[in-house]
Amino acid sequence: MGDNATEYTYEDFKTLMGTNFESAYHLCQLAHPLLKASANGSIVFNSSVAGLMSLPYNSIYAASKGKSYRSWNTVRQNIDQIKPSRILI
After folding, report:
1. What's the pTM?
2. Name one Pfam family in it (predicted).
C-alpha cells in the first residue's frame, strides 16, 4: 500500500475499511442478540492512537480507526438493553 494518501488505490481503501471497520461492525450485529440473552460477556473493540490523532503516511488507516472509534462509542450508547460497560473500546 502507498505511504501517501494519493498513492492508495481503491482496493487498498476497501481492504483497510473492510478489515478495520466493516468486519467489527458485522460481528457486533451478530453478537448483539447473544449479549441481550446473556448476563455475561462483552464486546471489546481494539482501536489505535491513529484514530485519535493525525500521523504521517497513515491517512486511510487513521480514517478507518477514527471511524471505528467514533462508531463504537455511539453503538455503546445506543444498543438497547445492554449496559454500556459491556462494550469496551
Report:
1. 0.69
2. adh_short
